[in-house]
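Running this now, will post back.
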Amino acid sequence: MPKATATGLILIAAVAFGQQTKPAFVREFNWPSPPGSAFPEGEWEKVKSPEAEGYSTPKLGALRVWLKTQNTTEMLVVAKGRVIFEYGDTAQVTKIASVRKSVLGMLLGNYVASRTVNLQKTVKELGLDDLDEFLPIEQRATLQNLIMSRSGIYLEADPNAPRKGSQAPDTLFYYNNWDFNAAGTAFEKLTGRNIFDALETDLARPIGMQDYDRAKQKKIQTVPGKLISKHPEYAMYLSTRDMARLGLLMLRQGKWKNADVLPKNWVQYLTTVHTPAAEVWPAALRRSLSAGPSRWGYGALWWVWDAPLGTTSANWTDFTGSYTAMGTDGQYITVIPLYDLVVAHKNANIDQTPDRDVSADQYQTILLMLLDAHCGPCN
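Update: finished.
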């Protein structure tokens, strides 16, 4: 997909200022629900056989065998709102790592739409000053820059970051936990709400999360015993089956049954490529996300497949229009609209054995095996 800067700005305006029309050159991709699609009522509905939704039982069996050789502990695959594949204890509640950032992106939507949150507010206006005093160039960074990880604000304590003051806001994507944590602080300052309370009332209850436990959510300083920032990590603990619910809400463009849980165009805004895969930095991260067939760029708090949507489907691939939340060691929520598919994946050993990784490359292999199991009308 191109940089889509103009598209992104129009979508920002549509959400922030309530505009319902767009210029003709901005194409809508709403990925309408296919006939017979469903939402879970309490427990997830499971298909009688994968073939009923166009997936091969033997090939999904091969995927199950493959997962046993990996560090995957849980995985749930939902097609048209029904479970076609389940692996491990999907009710287990564990840390979802950086998937939390994508969840924050979802939470922001209603507050942006109501103008409680203004994405154009600067870090100075928001009072996000930290232990490192903002340089004049850094003071211009906006909340939008933070959620796109393009603030140009770098802690002196981060040895991998560019030199402090070397980049103007919005000129460089650097996957920067300071941006994401400060965005969490900004959310709480502007809304007057705790992130975890908002998660419960704005998302968990409306979509019927089965395992959300407010008491398990906690804020963590980045380095135990050493304060390097005033803005803590807002660590979230969810089950795999509840992660899949979040993915289905995104796939349905913020609608849950007949309710608008997220505002119009918000999913489009979060999942419009602002940083192409080739511009992801640091380089090690770019290489891991662009290995082999993988092409993940960045939108706003969600990773987005970087390939042209175009005006026709002539050049589309299986992953065209896809987007994903990613967390260290193997936490993922992936939406693949062309297949009406949601994949929730977890390595639940993150707190106990953080060296047991499921890399982006390994996860991409899992996704490819899953799509290979699609057989259309299965014999």
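The chain has one domain: 5-18+40-372. More later if anyone needs it.
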